[in-house]
Amino acid sequence: MISDQDRDRDTLDTIFSKALQGRTLFKNHKALQSDFVPDHLPFRNTQLSSIAEILAPILHGSKPSNLLIYGKTGTGKTAAARHITTKLAQTAQKKRIDSNFIYCNARMSGTEYRTLCELAIGIGLKIPFTGLAVTEVLSRIQHFMKQHSLKTIFVIDEIDYLIRAYGDDLLYDLTSSSDKISPGFLSLIGISNDLQFKEELGARVQSRLSEEELVFPPYSAEELRTILNERATVALNTKAYTTAAINLCSALSGSEHGDARRAVDLLRIAGEIAEREGSDQLDERHVRIALQKIDQDRVSEALKTLPIHAKIVLLASIYSSQNDSTHSSSGFVYDKYSELCKKTGLEALTTRRVSGLLTELDTLGLLTAAVVNYGRYGRTKKITPQISFAVASKVFESDDTIKHLIH
DNA sequence: CGTCCACAGGAATGACGGGCGG
DNA sequence: CCGCCCGTCATTCCTGTGGACG
What is the pTM of this model? Predict the structure, then answer.
């Protein structure tokens, strides 16, 4: 009989010895991670030079126009913006021009307050992580920028998230604060995945924020192949992958929406699988396994960070819709949810709150909550889980408070 | 053609953890 | 230390609503 510990040590030993033998496929794992900004962005020359032209005025001390960048996920928006800003920052530093380039992701930050905090930290201003009014943080930032006459470019990624959750007031304040900051200034670069996002902006913000606009089209499968090849030569050892594997990665991602990030993720995960298997070449088989794993990974990451009640609501939705779809109204889900809460000893939240949680889970893409009218029989959200029971249970099993709800 | 279901979702309010200025 | 402010999450109370049924 082999204990768990023994087995763990065995596998660790084999991993280590393989690494020592130099059998790893990766020579630079970072180049395939999603936050990696490559030196060279193929097929984005026109966009890059447009951004550069728009931002260039900062090099002689005047305020660049605000910019709005559109494009679906994985079309290189973030990479392009980060690429240009770091290049600019380098040039500015060389020529001793005072300027700040700050990047933040609104969805990661979560709230208006925390987005502003990113800006504050970026310009070197200390702000407590809670306790202040948003307007207070804003005026401190403005005051600080005026005092030090800071010239700043602020990139807000996934800006559509911010608008949907909080409205455009903050953006209005940010774009109309130039006199409070002068002789410093603040230029905004908004990045949006949503092409219709602009219509959600009020007219006053719309004209200010999108002084300039740029659209990033999706990559074709052909272009993806070139990109992946470029990344692969940086990230992987020369003989560690087949061209067929690269081609498959680009074909699989290109057929959907030309999503480069997904293609790169796919390649990385395939590499990791191949490495774990101990094979010395990444081939098409690994890519196919990775394809199954990739969505699951993304989802379970989201699941893990969910608050406890959101987890239970999600579980309740899955149970409710499991056998027959007539049991997927928000009322049914709530009943199931409170039943589950009773089992864990937790106090159930109100219907109102659960309704809110359902919409939150919808925006996370973990389920769809469509409002439907059954006339005489009322008006509900029709809940359809977007993840399987298997995936959910796998993640929730590691949560002590709800693991016994899974059966 | 009006009724009325079964909720949606807005507004006001409160508890909580936390910072502020005095 | 105090009294006051904040954001966040949740509750309570409320008004609104599309369309099948009678």
Answer: 0.74
**Domain A45-215: which CATH number of 3.40.50.300, 3.60.40.10, 2.60.120.680, 3.40.718.10:** 3.40.50.300
Which pLDDT score, from 0 to 100, does residue A197 have? 74
pLDDT in tens, A254-299: 777 778 888 888 888 888 888 888 777 888 888 888 888 887 887 8
Q: Which residues contact A185 (CB under 8 A, 6 or more apart)?
A: A63, A151, A152, A178
Q: Establish whether domains A20-26+219-301 and A45-215 are of one fold.
A: no
Q: List the single protein residue with the shortest CA to C1' distance from B3.
A: A376
SS3 A185: strand
In chain A, domain spans: 20-26+219-301, 45-215, 306-405
Q: Which of residues 219-238 of A touch strand C (CB under 7 A)?
A: none
What sections of A238-307 are H helices per DSSP?
243-254, 260-277, 284-304
Residue-wise pLDDT tens digits, A321-335 = 886 656 689 999 999
Q: Which residue is nearest to nucleotide C4 (CA to C1')?
A: A131
Domain A306-405 in CATH 3.40.50.620? The answer is no
C1’ C7 / CA A390, Å: 36
d(CA A258, CA A223): 9
Strand segments (E) across A96-241: 100-105, 151-157, 185-192, 212-216
- Span CA (A98) to C1' (C18), Å: 59
**Which chain A residues 127-146 have CB under 7 A to strand C?**
130-136
Q: Which of A58-62, A181-185, A354-358 tops mean pLDDT?
A: A354-358
Tokens of A67: 């910019």
The model's confidence at residue A177, banded by pLDDT at 50, 70 and 90, is: confident
Q: Does domain A20-26+219-301 have CATH number 1.10.8.60?
A: yes
Model pLDDT, residue A326:
62
